[in-house]
Amino acid sequence: MTVDFAPFLPWPYLAALILAAVALAALGLWRGVRGAWLRTAALAAFCLAISNPSVFQEEREPLSTIVAVVVDRSQSQNNGNRREQTDHALAGLKDRLSRFPQIETRIVEAADSAETEAPSTKLFGALSTALADVPPARVGGAVFITDGQIHDVPDVNQKLGFDAPIHGLITGKPSEFDRRIEIVSAPRFGIVGEQQKMTFRVVDDGAAPGGGAEVTIRLNGNEIATERAEPGTDVPFSFTVPRGGNNILEFAVNPLAGEVTEVNNRAVHVLDGIRENLRVLLVSGEPHAGERAWRNLLKSDAAVDLVHFTILRPPEKQDGTPINELSLIAFPTRELFVDKISEFDLIIFDRYQHRGVLPILYYDNIAQYVQNGGALLIAAGPEHAGDDSIAATPLSAVLPATPTGVMNEKAFFPRLSEEGKKHPVTRGLEGASSEPPGWGRWFRTVDVDRPLGQTVMEAADGKPLLVLNRVGKGRVAMLLSDQGWLWARGIEGGGPHVSLYRRTAHWLMQEPALEEEALTARASGRTLEITRQTIEGDPGQATLTYPSGKTDEITLTEREPGLYKAEVKTTETGLFEVANDELTTLVHVGNVDAPEFKAAISTEEKLRPWAEKTKGLVRRLADADGPVDLPSILPVRGAVRVADGERLSLRMTDETVLKGINSLSLFGGLFGLAALLFLISSMWYREGR
């Protein structure tokens, strides 16, 4: 309650009037004049009336105390029975806090961090966001229900923005242990065919039984090594980069019986394979109109080192021309086809025929080169159907088709076969979707018996034009016409010769993106994109194995001929495995070095410093497999000065909100007038006596 004055006269005049009244009253009292007390009271009432005093009384309502309950919903809470403990504790805490009408509970559900970040548990960030609109004086405390693995705990010397207890209710068991594997150092890039070095480490958290660990190492799904590792010791490992593009290294350590989780028993590293300059050997049998089509394509690629020879004169041709006028160097057959044949990534025979330039044994070397993983392309012309065809040499062991000795001299539009519409080498070639195709005609092909492998392009009357086949570890392609140069020269509008030649060459060199049977998966945020390439028809469902161990059957939908896809949204992060038929692939969602998958055992230590500083409590919800035991609530008026080892202390707020103000004028209205008249009348009556 407060008293306020609103005088009818300015304060200087009112002060002068009050001084005069005081002087008169003092003089009367000093001289003992009869009725002086009544005169003094009348003057005082008159001055008060002119001062116009009013009494004000505020109506206030107490504000509630805000208590934040931060619930850890991160992926590590799926281990064991932590989620059940969390749900039980949350329900019990809500019930106990609801018994205090002056407490307002604010529940904060905190899941893994955003898609663009490494998956982690950020509970203090969630708490700060939830209390951003609350004045610090109204915060009564914060209770964390978590396994203790919090990755954004601020330094204990920092300020939280409020002065109230921090409590931790810890899920999990006190005797937990876990074994995990982590990659210490590894390159991001590597040259195909060269060795790369990396280091990994096995870590035992908690009261693990110890002992050596066996680590299985897989590269692109294939097991390549098994290593022994002592926990806590760095282990070096070397491997050879097998291919260009993504290469996935997987390190898996054998699980321990009774450990918290097996999710972190695998670690993944993605390495980009980079091809050093590709070495291509191009041998042209004789000069012809299309000879430079292959040469120009290969020379235009800066990543290709091209060795090109043209056989200008076979040994049996003797015309007296000096050797130094035919070529700069003699054809180094032994060096190319014996000593250094394994160094080439691709060998191309362009209209080449056997005329004694290469000894017959060298063809067997080329066949073995293919069997051991090499790549061979035959660009055939009329000579391939003749008596000197290389199909009559030991090279025939790796060729997918045998010539009949006939040339088909008939104009035709090259067309994609049914397999070709599905094969990555020819699918989507510009102009292939129309009928007739939107490219120029060719005019002759080599007739062959029924070929092996896949016939992806056809000539007139459905005859094979482009045949692809796998032989041993290597690959062979046969282009049964020498007229691809018509497309390069723009005859009848030309055609996509660059795309066709380049894709064929890259398929031969085992480019992963051009595999006809392939299963790939990539992560875009929390969405998995699964792609199945096949030329065999509907591949059926794919099996998706989550990091938590659960599996789902995923339906693949055909988006293009031979290309089936599916998208799966997931809340889990970590290493996923996709399987279809005999194909498997791995994909990692989230950062491969995510904090969420490092330490998995529950702990009280991360929250303890804050609990000790703010007089809070940190304790486990249950011992071993016992029931959840919640501490009771202790409301405290004023600052919490002493920690309670058994109860959750909460600082109750003294904050109020103003609801209204009541005012009363003391000398206003009839009451003030009556009081003033009474005193004046009393004074007059006394003077009249």
Description:
The protein is an alpha/beta fold and 689 residues long. 20% of the residues lie in helices and 34% in strands. The mean pLDDT is 85. The chain crosses the membrane at residues 12-30, 664-685.
Question: How do the helices and strands line up, and which of them pair or pack?
Answer:
Layout: E1 2-5, H1 11-31, H2 36-51, E2 53-62, E3 65-72, H3 82-98, E4 103-110, H4 123-130, E5 139-146, E6 166-170, E7 177-185, E8 189-191, E9 195-206, E10 213-219, E11 222-229, E12 234-240, E13 245-253, E14 266-274, E15 278-284, H5 291-299, E16 304-310, H6 333-339, E17 346-350, H7 360-371, E18 375-379, E19 403-408, E20 415-416, H8 418-422, E21 445-448, E22 454-458, E23 464-471, E24 474-479, H9 485-488, H10 497-508, E25 518-524, E26 527-533, E27 542-545, E28 551-554, E29 557-560, E30 563-569, E31 574-580, E32 583-589, H11 608-614, E33 618-620, E34 632-637, E35 647-652, E36 656-665, H12 669-688
Parallel strand pairs: 3-4, 3-5, 5-6, 6-33, 8-14, 15-16, 15-17, 17-18, 18-24, 34-35
Antiparallel strand pairs: 1-2, 2-36, 7-9, 9-12, 10-11, 10-13, 13-14, 19-21, 20-22, 22-23, 23-24, 25-26, 26-30, 27-28, 27-31, 29-30, 31-32
